[in-house]
């Protein structure tokens, strides 16, 4: 879904920096015009502040592992979005841990599968209201018309 989401973002005028463990996938998205980053530090360095990093990986331990790899390079005010429909208890735990470093965490329930990621998803977004206001244009652009909803505090987007 990440590949299609990046295409959707770019089609709607957003710059995207992509990373994937699959080198073939990275080269494929690069051929579509996305910038790619070989590692997490490079990706963070390529993004404007406050950085918005959107994870589109399967829910579970992998999300924690990727967050741990990103965290040393993130700064206060950066925004990390989990679009993998994680368990809300995991989301609350992650948000609390990241909050201690001043990193904002948002959870996004994403509906529509591969087709939605490419042509307009339905998204339910949980997190701080001010942070949502900052990223709302992204959700408006990548969702179907009226297809995104701010649901309130972190953990509510995936419930």
Automatic annotation (TrEMBL):
Start and end residues of each 6-phosphogluconate dehydrogenase NADP-binding domain: 1-143
SUPFAM superfamilies found in the cross-reference section: NAD(P)-binding Rossmann-fold domains
Top-rank lineage group of the source organism: Bacteria
GO molecular function: NADP binding; phosphogluconate dehydrogenase (decarboxylating) activity
Pfam families recorded: NAD_binding_2
InterPro entries: 6PGDH_NADP-bd, NAD(P)-bd_dom_sf, Pgluconate_DH
The protein's name in its UniProt record: 6-phosphogluconate dehydrogenase
Organism name: Mesobacillus boroniphilus JCM 21738
């Amino acid at each position: 879904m990440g590949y299609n989401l990046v295409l959707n973002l770019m089609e709607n005028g957003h710059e995207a920096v992509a990373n994937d463990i699959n080198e073939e996938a990275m080269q494929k998205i690069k051929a579509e015009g996305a910038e790619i980053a070989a590692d997490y530090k490079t990706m963070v360095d390529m993004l404007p502040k406050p950085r918005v990093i959107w994870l589109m990986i399967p829910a579970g331990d992998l999300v924690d592992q990727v967050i741990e790899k990103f965290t040393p390079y993130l700064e206060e005010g950066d925004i990390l979005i989990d679009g993998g429909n994680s368990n809300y208890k995991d989301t609350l735990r992650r948000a609390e841990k990241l909050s201690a470093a001043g990193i904002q965490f948002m959870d996004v329930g994403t509906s529509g599968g591969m087709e939605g990621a490419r042509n307009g998803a339905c998204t339910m977004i949980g997190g701080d209201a001010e942070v949502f206001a900052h990223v709302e244009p992204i959700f408006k652009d990548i969702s179907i018309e009226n297809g995104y909803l701010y649901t309130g505090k972190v953990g509510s987007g995936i419930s």
